[in-house]
Design brief:
Layout: E1 20-23, H1 27-42, H2 63-82, E2 91-100, E3 106-109, E4 116-123, E5 143-146, E6 166-169, E7 175-180, E8 185-187, E9 196-205
Antiparallel strand pairs: 1-7, 2-9, 3-8, 4-7, 4-9, 5-6, 5-8
Helix pairs in contact: 1-2
Length: 216
């Protein structure tokens, strides 16, 4: 993808934010082993989901982890190719599991110090549970992403593509999502008695001077 330039009519589309979704082949078999592994590692720890810096799930020696790590790397390669990066980029992966029971959610946040972030969904309750009648803004089990350009939608009018400050996706088991690490996102409450299980990850660049932007 070429850098943005003024087109023949004088317009330039600037500062896109790309989110990638893929359905991973073979996820049915892998998810059974990932769910078993995560349950064994959780072991009743109340801080299991919140203590994301405790270890790196993606370094474990396990066939399902090997499969997932390979899928994440291939997804990152596709993401960077789509962004037009035609030179070698190297990164390291850090991953952690999230187990959301009834009522659990993740506050709006981003992932500092990383380049790309993402989540692989191991188990997602159907519809995330029943939505309260008095809270139409609650979308159980969904994930929302927010426009990183602060208040860009404040003067939007009908038909303006800038108007929607929020993008919401209801994932399914087997979905991998990837986005720029700076992007604010929010995981809506799980309102089901079934667990919502996911594996989040960061891709942190191994620095090279080749990454420095060239000045025109």
């Amino acid at each position: 993808m070429a850098p943005p330039r003024f087109d023949s009519d004088g317009f330039a589309e600037l500062w896109p934010t790309t989110i990638l979704r893929r359905r991973l082949p073979g996820h049915d078999v892998a998810n059974l082993e990932l769910a078993r592994l995560i349950a064994a590692r959780e072991g009743g720890r109340e801080d299991f989901t919140t203590d994301y810096r405790a270890g790196n799930l993606l370094t474990l020696e396990n066939p399902a982890i090997d499969w997932l790590r390979d899928c994440i790397n291939r997804t990152a390669i596709d993401y960077l190719k789509h962004a037009g990066l035609n030179y070698e980029v190297n990164w390291s992966l850090q991953g952690w599991a999230n187990v959301n029971r009834r009522g659990d959610y993740h506050d709006p946040h981003n992932h500092p110090h990383a380049y790309l972030s993402g989540t692989y969904h191991v188990a997602v309750p159907a519809a995330g549970g029943a939505r309260p009648d008095n809270r139409p803004d609650v979308r159980p089990g969904a994930i929302s992403f927010y426009d990183p350009r602060g208040f860009a939608n404040m003067t939007a009018i009908r038909g303006d593509r800038q108007i929607e400050a929020e993008f919401t996706h209801r994932p399914e088991a087997g979905d991998i999502l990837m986005w720029p690490a700076f992007l604010m996102h929010f995981v809506h409450p799980n309102l089901s008695d079934e667990k919502r299980i996911s594996i989040s990850f960061n891709a942190t660049l191994k620095w090279s001077d080749a990454y420095l932007p060239k000045q025109d």
